[in-house]
Design goal:
15 helices, Annexin V, domain 1, about 0% strand, 2 domains, mainly alpha, about 250 residues
Length: about 250
């Protein structure tokens, strides 16, 4: 399907109608998060709880295990057959692109960017401001948490300087750091977020929420890596960075 001038004229609708589509957008993002954390099969099993019928159809196609090109073709044919216009066509296009984004295993943040492309910059900016405010409020709440920790890494973070934490976080890959943070207290998480930019903090929070609960062996491996890195920091050596964008 070509998103050309003709298509643009067919999806014309009011700003209020587009704002109502935020409900559908969030539902698609919810399915994207489920796919990243639990896999495609869970989506197929959970399809009956989806309110939007076109989204439900798309999720069922994923659950059946069809290939990307087949799902794309089926959804496009169904869009043509329904002969929708205005907000109805716009929402169907959002669903189609959301389903394809899920199949590509795109990051949820990328799926969000794609979907908001249909709603326009003003609605996206308003939504982003609300999200930033929510993230800031969450960080403020974490800052008031009791200074407790559950692991060796957590106790280290509570007592380390900002420079030491910066070295640790650049040397730790996201996933390994997330393994240790999955079981940590709010006070420890605050030390992480307070040493990240807002964008990096939101990205880390998203990845942490999608990350599966680690088993004992995974935790032990992460702790070993933590000890290796902090030993270098204690000796005055700067560990090799892996997260250059923090």
């Amino acid at each position: 399907m070509n998103y050309d001038f003709t298509f643009g004229s067919m999806i014309k609708c009011s700003e209020n109608e587009k704002k109502h589509s935020l409900v559908l957008l969030k539902e698609i993002l919810g399915q994207s998060k489920k796919a990243r954390t639990a896999g495609f099969l869970v989506l197929g099993q959970d399809s009956d709880s989806i309110k939007n019928s076109f989204l439900k159809d798309g999720i069922k196609l994923i659950g059946k295990g069809y290939e990307y090109s087949a799902v794309e073709k089926i959804l496009e044919i169904r869009m043509v057959v329904r002969n929708a216009k205005g907000i109805h066509l716009l929402e169907m296009a959002m669903v189609k692109e959301g389903i394809l984004s899920i199949l590509r295993a795109d990051p949820v943040s990328l799926t969000e960017e794609i979907l908001f492309s249909f709603l326009g910059s003003s609605i996206y900016e308003e939504h982003t401001k609300e999200q930033n405010d929510d993230f800031t409020k969450n960080i403020i709440q974490l800052s008031h948490s009791e200074r407790t920790a559950r692991s060796e890494c957590g106790f280290w973070l509570l007592n380390a300087s900002d420079n030491e934490i910066s070295f640790l976080m650049k040397a730790f890959d996201w996933e390994t750091l997330g393994v240790l943070m999955k079981v940590e207290t709010d006070a420890v998480l605050y030390r992480i977020y307070s040493n990240l930019s807002k964008d990096a903090g939101k990205l880390f929070k998203e990845r942490l929420e999608m990350q599966k609960d680690p088993d004992g062996r995974t935790i032990n491996d992460a702790e070993d890596k933590f000890r290796t890195i902090t030993a270098k920091i204690a000796a005055g050596k700067v560990p090799d960075p892996v997260n250059m964008n923090l």
